[in-house]
Amino acid sequence: MGRCTMRYFFSLLTPVMVLATCVTGLAQSRLNIGSTPSPEEIKAMDGLVGPAGKELPPGSGTAAAGAKIYLQKCAFCHGRNLEGNRDLGPRLVAQSPNLYSYPFATSLWTYINRSMPANKPGSLTADEVYALSAFVLYRNEIVQESDVLDAKTLPKIQMPNRDGFHPAVPVWPESAETKRIAGEYVKPGTR
Description:
Elements: H1 3-30, H2 39-45, E1 60-62, H3 63-73, H4 75-78, H5 105-115, H6 126-139, E2 148-150, H7 176-182
Antiparallel strand pairs: 1-2
Helix pairs in contact: 3-6, 5-6
């Protein structure tokens, strides 16, 4: 390589290296790529709830409370009247195929708790999740507007397509993992 070619090569290489360093730093600080999740972030993603609802946390909510939360945190993607937005979020009312894919109300609660809102999943409090569940179920005529949903009432709700699944009542595994998630003591080293 001639001197001119080498000089040209290094004049291009330097800006590329600087840019790569900046992009890496930006990704780590702004997007949290490569960072260790905090205990709160891990807990938000660790919320398996079975059909019986034994793993549900304390809290409660009504459709009226859920309507207010929905307008603040959900309407942008799912529409003001739960009609959905083709590009952002599915409809949640009028025999929504999404709602009918849940055999148990605890499944709906778990999905909202772990995945919503889409821009900050796992950020809702237990009371907000109960209220939003109540609102969606009320708008689909599954519960009454005045019904209070909590850890005792939510598992008792009969979902419209509950019997459309096989087995109709799944066997919820009693493993060390489900006990750990439920907050029960698990002897270290057991599976």
